[in-house]
Design a protein that fits this description.
Order of helices and strands: EEEEHHEHEEHEEH
Number of strands: 9
Strand order of the largest sheet: 1-2-3-5-4
Shape: globular
GO molecular function, one term: tRNA nucleotidyltransferase activity
Binding site for phosphate: 85, 123-125
EC number: 2.7.7.56
Structural class: alpha+beta
CATH class: Alpha Beta
Radius of gyration: 18 Å
CATH topology: Ribosomal Protein S5, domain 2
Number of domains: 1
Oligomer: single chain
Helix content: 25-40%
Keywords: Nucleotidyltransferase, RNA-binding, rRNA processing, Transferase, tRNA processing, tRNA-binding
Number of helices: 5
Protein name: Ribonuclease PH
């Protein structure tokens, strides 16, 4: 049986707390089971040098994990320097969020999204993407209220979930004990209209066949539709 007797195609219980950091233009505490990620958006009235004079905005992300988000203390990256894992994840988050909106409609603003893992029990990058997308929407609404934007841009919501193979069985939304023992581990980022944004899938022990990958994608898509229905 899976932890908590969860069905193979079931998401963990999830919850969203808006306005968790009231000073941010948009913030969300995203909980997926025991995984909790704080996502906060800051709006800056400038863009990176490579976009100067082009009349468009930019969305970027930073990701980190608090030292006791895990069972044993991890080193604070402010001291040790950003890890390769954190760098890869924050680039994934940024790419995913930039799919949500036409950057030309943001004016010359940078929306900087901080994703900080408070508790880690698997699927932190997926929870970060899902929470960051909701926080981004809240920040854009605030920008309209402050007359930084003339109107709310059309949004294409995105969300993410993990799916993998554990003990020969395809399962959705892996907890850490499953993730650490998975034969195949995948992260699936999808837009609300059903198109894929990014897929990361890795065989941990031996290669897996195309039909197994297709089944994992189908499983993930069903879970993501449930997330969109509940959150958007």
């Amino acid at each position: 049986m899976r932890p908590n007797n969860r069905a193979v195609a079931a998401l963990r219980p999830f919850n969203v707390s808006y306005g968790f950091q009231p000073h941010a233009e948009g913030s969300v505490l995203m909980s997926m089971g025991q995984t909790q990620v704080l996502c906060a958006v800051s709006v800056e009235d400038h863009v990176p040098p490579f976009l100067l004079g082009r009349g468009q905005g930019w969305i970027t992300a930073e990701y980190g994990m608090l030292p006791r988000a895990t069972k044993s203390r991890g080193r604070r990256e402010a001291v040790s320097g950003i890890s390769g894992r954190s760098h890869e994840i924050q680039r994934l988050i940024g790419r995913s969020l930039r799919m949500m909106v036409d950057l030309r409609l943001l004016g010359e603003h940078t929306l900087r999204v901080d994703c900080d893992v408070l508790n880690a029990d698997g699927g932190t990058r997926c929870a970060a993407i899902t929470g960051a997308a909701l926080a981004l929407r809240a920040a854009l609404v605030r920008m309209v209220e402050r007359e930084q934007l003339p109107a709310l841009p059309e949004l294409l919501p995105v969300a993410a979930v993990s799916a993998g193979i554990v003990d020969g069985q395809q399962v959705l939304d892996l907890e850490y004990v499953e993730d650490s023992a998975a034969e195949v581990d995948g992260n699936f980022v999808m837009a609300q209209d059903g198109r894929w944004v990014e897929i990361q899938a890795t065989a941990e022990g031996r290669p897996f066949p195309p039909e197994a990958f297709a089944a994992l994608a189908t499983l993930a898509a069903a879970g993501l539709r449930d997330l969109f229905s509940a959150l958007w």
